[in-house]
Model the fold of this input.
Amino acid sequence: MESSKPSILKKDGVNYFLPFILITFCFALWGFANDITNPMVKAFSKIFRMSVTDGALVQVAFYGGYFAMAIPAALFIRRFSYKSGVLVGLGLYAIGALLFLPAEKTGSYYPFLIAYFILTCGLSFLETSCNPYILSMGPEQTATRRLNLAQSFNPCGSILGMFVAMNFIQNRLNPMSSADRALLPEQEFEALKHSDLQILIAPYLVIALVIIAVFAVILLVRMPKNASDTSEHTAFRPTLRRLLGRKSYREGVIAQFFYVGAQIMCWTFIIQYGTEVLVGTVPNGFEQGLLSLLGQSPEAVLGEKSAEVLSQGYNIIAMLGFIISRFICTALLKYVKAPRMLFCFALAGILFSALTILLGGRAGLYCLVAISLCMSLMFPTIYGMALEGTGEDAKLGSAGLIMAILGGSVLPPLQARIIDAGTVGSFSAVHLSFILPLVCFAVIAIYGIRQKASS
Done:
């Protein structure tokens, strides 16, 4: 990041290097929240003896919070400042995480959904504040590159979230299958549920303490005000009309909705896909090494628990590829126009999604992992393209793009319904369910080609 300081982090004589570091750290924090949550769909389904569809309500609550709070967050930022929005976001994040403790005491599923909702109201504040703030920390012509650079650290938090979910939650939960839990007497089931919930909440309480510490640092550090923090506030309706009058913005919100849906589907249901593919198979040498690295004893034939852990390992590999690809894309954006890159990566996403459906087996799993390389540049690139040239309107415009994260709430339950079907004709329902990410990438490709034509 040091080499980027002179060229892209100065504007109107203001040096944004330190604010860039602090705000970029927030990107990692919400990446952690996103990816410690994705495996919880399967964990809650098992703990509470629910269907995959009911377990996916975690994603509904999680991404519903993004949708509900985006406009209030944008109005708050317009009234106060980006820094104030960041502090409110961190505060709500910490409160939501701390609410996992009373939720565990109730032994009920729905208080956890409330905690997730409040937590993600905080994430909505954070994203609505941090993304446009990063865009404004330098010349407009380097804004998309700057946001890609900051967003490159988001999956670093995601990797940590996956690691914590796997090693401190999934590996410590009772390995009893959902089918066996359904046969337990009620008293034994309640004791098992209580034990598993105590394991599940511990990482959330720890991250709450980390968030409180970050809140204190950002509160105490003086951060230069951006010009837009002190500009005259414009009326809501005229601003909204101007934004909706921009084709690139309108279509960008739609593309972002489908991108987030695709991302969450691919990173959530890789566990189901991988488990179905790997159970009952003989692990190859690479998988035996990966299981050992993940703290799981290699088996001659993979059982459900080992297959689930190994699937999470493949998910981590996908995230590592995502990180590497995003850094590469950030560098390439200096030479290749953003719409062209977005279009090409969306086409690759369509191809790998189709192969995930058609190939099955380990080959299909490898293609599912490869989709993450294609997704790497999409969120910040769509975001930057949609807000390009919006000026002060970006504060409200960012809310629309954050509300588009609702795609992560709407689309995964649809995929879960397909998975719950078991089989669809001659296809495994888990495999066929990835038709939904394929459609999402098609929408993104259309946005990329339309932006390329108008640029």
User: Anything to note?
Assistant: The first helix runs from residue 5 to 8. Strands lie at 10-11, 14-15, 423-424, 427-428. Residues 1 and 83 are 21 Å apart (CA to CA).
